[in-house]
User: What shape does this take?
Amino acid sequence: MAATFASKCSRVGRSLWGGLGNNLSGLLSASHETACNHFLSQLVLEILQQQRTFIQMRTVLKVVDNSGAKKVMCIQALKGKKGARLGDTIIASVKEAYPNGKVKKGKVVYGVVVRAAMQRGRCDGSEVKFDDNAVVLVDKQGQPIGTRVFGPVPHELRQKKHVKILSLAGHIA
Assistant: This one.
């Protein structure tokens, strides 16, 4: 895509300045090509910044329940995957916590990913993605530690057998 855009830019520059003579045309088309190349590099940079990836090691996630933690950092995605997606269980370390919560800073906990910035396709052809990465903390049996879940939660959690989280959620997306 980038190569075709660059060739179109150079062709447009040459066609615009073709009648002005060889020296002036070469100078102007060269400056136009550098402008196109600069624009292309900016475009590629923006695309790379918007690229969404799995939730992997050292990803900081927001905690959206009332267990007492604010932010956690993913240590490992369970089931031997390279990363976690919606509904997957992770092991995380608590990085920020409220003073009187059930979970303290530095504790290693399990969590279920309830919002992910990476898009996921649905059966009907639509795709779901969120603005942030969020997790609900659970115990080893998979039961939520908190008693409330804040924000939207996708209904794909039902397929992953996290019905208790869905029942605590205020809004199912």
User: Anything to note?
Assistant: DSSP finds three helices and nine strands in the chain.
